[in-house]
């Protein structure tokens, strides 16, 4: 789940995948897989919620799985024979078969009921949210000018700017209310939820994370104080305002904030805090927050699921497997589909990580796929269809992993992979090829040879920018750099990319209005470096140290791994003309196939699941890299993934040399470091350097032939590692990326 965050970024501004006025149910469930009300919590005030009646039923015990419909004993479904009744073997066989058919039918009915309820709840909440936002921001049509505005921004960037502006307006309103009512826990939660939602959608280096964390802690203190009062008075803490005692807090997952019990409210806040810590790369803190929730209710599905995801990042696979197994046992409604994705990753590392091995997952998935397929065919509500498509995609990808890793049945593996991606693409808008071509052409036209002034730009070499196509080996490169005591890898949560909008606007203003461009650029560069350092200090203070002797060592370099910054090399060079820009490149079809089979977070990389759009995206990437090599010859340092695999000692030494730092032998032990790795390559990078990834696409060469043809001449990449001090071994000197 924690997903890679480098996919939704444009050439000029951070991406946004949903509107403040109603993020799609697909985005909400993809990111959280539960509690759509929390995902929409940025809307400030919640009105009375629409709660399915059967969600309000009291569970018989804390260990009772979350269910939508629980047939009564009087219904006769699956009832045991009456006492004294004689049953022949044939009758027993017939009854078992009837029971099996009823179970299959009931599963389909349960799924239908579940999605109808979810969609109904979300739509009601979205309507209430939009009305509250309208009232609280005063955004009425009467207050708007009827005259059209001049110089209106157009295209994707304009839409993203509007989303960011609307979100910031709502957050500003919530902040005012929070300051007016500092003792109101609900106001605190709504404000913190809004900040967290913004961090999910707008990738700006997590600049609001610390504020949100602080506000969540204030809310927790308020709730705990009230909860302790009830304990002191001998009153229950698991009773919502409606007076119905709740023994299983999973019943409250769809409740509005003000309709939750104190236990449910506290669990919800701790779970959201855990997600925020995760996004801030404070993984130990994330686990601790989930533990606080699970100390109140050990079966709280939201916390169990996402604690499992965090444990994967920390390399604690067995513990993650335990969490996911528990989710599969409890979540009979199958709302937490991330459990299937997670458990397949854990099993792929080592089957012993999960009690019962692959069968723990496979048996459930094989029953779920046909039931969900049947319901998707009859679903007419777009949000419900999108949610079912997301669920089916995850199930098929889990089975792809099973057959690819365990059974080695490549035919079945491909069938599941291709079907999962087909279902995913069936509910997405078509790829806008014309828009992408226009974006590429704009970059090429603007950043031409001679565009950059020779005396403009900071001399600071603190940032190191890693660029390239997704799934190209960038995580391995970043881990090698991060293993040096004076280098810190910041991942995809890019400070530079988050400031790109203001960087662009400030440069345009200085250029067109006679400002001092040199001073403006230096100020912008200093701001990026300062925020990188401040962010590191915050994360470092909240991270368990592997070696306390190095805890006071302040880094001299920060590695920014926002891969799509290959679009923004022009701006990078303007601010940091001496900063190292590393372009990592892998064999084209290995890269492209890896991108196709991976499930990226919803956003700019959705279209990698389709052959045509994926090939177009890859060719655009190659075209822009070729452009930079023409207009800024030698500015980008190329690193071949194959050279890292075949000659890591040589590449690592040349890499550190290029940073201007002294060599440290511990760099070669990068795979032994206990650093958390928040990326889709989490499990791979912990293996160290391995050759399995070379030519890995060949297993599926036959079904991939249409993609090979679409990529065309760029199916090969004639590229050398250009690290200045790198001399490849003779056995590698004549090889190139893409040699078949």
How would you describe this structure to a colleague?
The protein has 740 residues and is mainly α. Among the domains are: 11-60 and 99-135 and 155-300, no CATH class; 457-715, Rossmann fold (3-Layer(aba) Sandwich). It contains 26 helices and five strands. The chain has helices spanning 25-31, 36-39, 89-137, 155-180, 185-201, 209-232, 262-279, 283-296, 301-313, 317-330, 338-349, 359-378, 382-407, 410-426, 433-446, 474-482, 495-498, 500-512, 517-541, 569-575, 588-597, 611-631, 641-646, 648-659, 682-685, 705-711; strands at 463-467, 487-491, 557-560, 580-585, 637-640. Strands 2-3-1-4-5 form a five-stranded parallel β-sheet, with helices on both faces. Helix 22 (611-631) packs parallel to helix 26 (705-711). The chain is globular. The chain crosses the membrane at residues 29-51.
Structural class of the helices, strands and pairings? mainly alpha
The residue-averaged pLDDT reads 79
Instruction: Identify the CATH class of the domain at 457-715.
Output: Alpha Beta
**How many strands in all?**
5
The proportion of residues in beta strands is under 5%
CATH fold assignment of the domain at 457-715: Rossmann fold
The CATH architecture term of the domain at 457-715 is 3-Layer(aba) Sandwich
The biggest sheet amounts to: 5 strands, parallel
Fraction of residues in helices?
A: 40-55%
Strand order of the largest sheet: 2-3-1-4-5
Shape: globular
User: Unreliable stretches, pLDDT < 50, 5 or more residues?
Assistant: 1-87, 110-156, 676-683, 736-740
CATH homologous superfamily designation of the domain at 457-715: P-loop containing nucleotide triphosphate hydrolases
Distance between the termini: 34 Å
Radius of gyration: 27 Å
């Amino acid at each position: 789940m924690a997903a890679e965050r480098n996919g939704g970024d444009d050439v000029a501004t951070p991406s946004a995948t949903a509107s403040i006025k109603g993020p799609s149910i697909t985005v909400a469930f993809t990111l959280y897989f539960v509690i759509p009300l929390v995902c929409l919590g940025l809307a400030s005030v919640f009105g009375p919620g629409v709660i399915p009646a059967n969600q309000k039923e009291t569970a018989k015990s804390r260990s009772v799985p979350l269910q939508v419909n629980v047939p009564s004993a009087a219904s006769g479904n699956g009832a045991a024979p009456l006492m004294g009744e004689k049953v022949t073997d044939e009758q027993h066989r017939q009854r078992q078969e009837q029971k099996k058919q009823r179970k299959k039918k009931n599963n389909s009915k349960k799924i239908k009921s579940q999605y109808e309820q979810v969609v109904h709840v979300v739509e009601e909440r979205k309507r209430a949210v939009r009305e509250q936002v309208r009232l609280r921001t005063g955004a009425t049509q009467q207050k708007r000018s009827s005259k059209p505005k001049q110089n209106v921004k157009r295209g994707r960037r304009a839409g993203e700017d509007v989303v960011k502006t609307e979100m910031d307006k709502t957050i500003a309103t919530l902040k005012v209310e929070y300051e007016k009512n500092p003792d109101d826990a609900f106001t605190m939660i709504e404000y913190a939820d809004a900040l967290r939602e913004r961090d999910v959608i707008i990738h700006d280096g997590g600049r609001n994370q610390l504020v949100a964390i602080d506000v969540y802690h204030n809310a927790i203190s308020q709730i705990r104080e009230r909860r302790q009062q009830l304990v002191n008075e001998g009153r229950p803490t698991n009773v919502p305002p409606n007076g119905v005692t709740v023994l299983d807090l999973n019943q409250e997952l769809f409740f509005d904030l003000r309709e939750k019990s104190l236990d449910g409210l506290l669990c919800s806040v701790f779970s959201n805090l855990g997600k925020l810590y995760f996004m801030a790369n404070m993984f130990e803190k994330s686990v601790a927050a989930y533990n606080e929730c699970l100390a109140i209710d050990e079966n709280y599905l939201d916390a169990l699921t996402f604690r499992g995801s965090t444990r994967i990042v920390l390399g604690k696979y067995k513990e993650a497997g335990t969490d996911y197994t528990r989710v599969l046992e409890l979540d009979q409604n199958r709302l937490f589909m991330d459990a299937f994705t997670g458990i397949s990753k854990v099993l792929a590392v080592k089957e012993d990580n999960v009690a019962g091995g692959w069968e723990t997952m496979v048996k459930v998935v094989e029953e779920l796929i046909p039931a969900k397929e049947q319901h998707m065919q009859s679903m007419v509500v777009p949000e419900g269809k999108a949610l079912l498509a997301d669920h089916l995609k995850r199930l098929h990808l889990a089975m792809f992993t099973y057959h690819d890793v365990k059974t080695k049945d490549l035919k079945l593996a491909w069938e599941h992979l291709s079907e999962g991606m087909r279902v995913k693409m069936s509910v997405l808008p078509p790829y806008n090829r014309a828009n992408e071509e226009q974006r590429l052409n704009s970059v090429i036209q603007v950043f031409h040879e001679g565009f950059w002034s020779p005396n403009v730009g900071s001399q600071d070499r603190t940032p190191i920018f890693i660029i390239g196509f997704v799934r190209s080996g960038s995580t391995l490169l970043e881990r090698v750099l991060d293993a040096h005591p004076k280098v810190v890898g910041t991942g995809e949560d890019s400070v530079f990319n988050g400031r790109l909008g203001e960087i662009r606007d400030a440069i345009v203003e200085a250029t067109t209005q006679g400002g001092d461009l040199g001073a403006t650029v230096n100020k912008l560069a200093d701001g990026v470096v300062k925020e990188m350092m401040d962010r590191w200090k915050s994360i470092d203070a909240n991270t368990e140290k592997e070696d306390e002797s190095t805890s006071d060592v302040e880094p001299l370099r920060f590695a920014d791994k926002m891969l799509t910054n290959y679009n923004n090399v022009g701006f990078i060079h303007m601010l940091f003309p001496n900063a190292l820009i590393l372009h990592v490149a892998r064999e084209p079809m290995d890269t492209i196939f890896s991108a196709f089979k991976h499930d990226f977070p919803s956003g700019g990389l959705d279209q990698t699941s389709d052959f045509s759009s994926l090939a177009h995206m890859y060719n655009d990437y190659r075209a822009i890299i070729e452009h930079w090599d023409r207009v800024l010859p030698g500015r980008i340092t190329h690193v071949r993934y194959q050279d890292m695999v075949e000659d890591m000692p040589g590449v690592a030494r040349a890499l550190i040399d290029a940073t201007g730092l002294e060599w440290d032998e511990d760099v070669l032990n990068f795979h032994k470091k206990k650093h958390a790795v928040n990326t889709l390559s989490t499990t791979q990078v912990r293996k160290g350097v391995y050759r399995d990834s070379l030519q890995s696409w060949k297993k599926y060469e036959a079904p991939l032939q249409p993609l090979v043809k679409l990529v065309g001449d760029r199916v090969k990449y004639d590229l050398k590692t250009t690290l200045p001090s790198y001399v490849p071994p003779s056995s590698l000197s004549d090889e190139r990326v893409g040699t078949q």
